[in-house]
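Quarterly update from the structural biology core.
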Amino acid sequence: MVIPRTTMSSLEWIATLLGIACVALAAMRNVWTFPTGIGSVVLLGIVVFEARLYSDAALQVFFAVANLYGWVQWRRAKGMEGEIAVRTMATGERMRWAVATLAGWLAWGALMHSRTDAAYPWWDAAIAAVSIAAQLLMGRRRIENWCLWIAVDVASVPLYLIKELYLFAGLYLIYLALAVGGLMSWHKASRGGREAA
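Predicted structure, tokenized:
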């Protein structure tokens, strides 16, 4: 029998607060999104591993590395351009990213399904694959990262509710609102950059 979780650990609370700060800073194109994100994903990784969401746990390791990558890229861009400029992807680039993400989901989902006792391996793997693409695109300052984050947020809320990680489900609802705001903000910044050019 599974006993429902009625309290949230201090790790969950700290990861939640850092996660909210991270996404808000990203929406504002602030380079401090990355160190804040590193703190959040390390703590989140511990929590989801204990919940047997292994794809999600492995994803947090990737996020720590990807946040370091993004931090370097954004600091370099800010030094060269004076601000964090953003842009959209060409159609061919979008197609390549979509195919790679789909392939990653199928490969990782099959591995988690056949080799582990992961809870919801295909669902968890889909979130992981799309999250990887979104994080890499954020590091590259592509506006499309926000569309992917919106999809991740919509898919994550019910998964966390099923696993009784209620605080994280609430966090992903907040992430969803911040991602919509980030998408609008980056579109506006992109239009402003084109007009200035």
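The mean pLDDT is 88.
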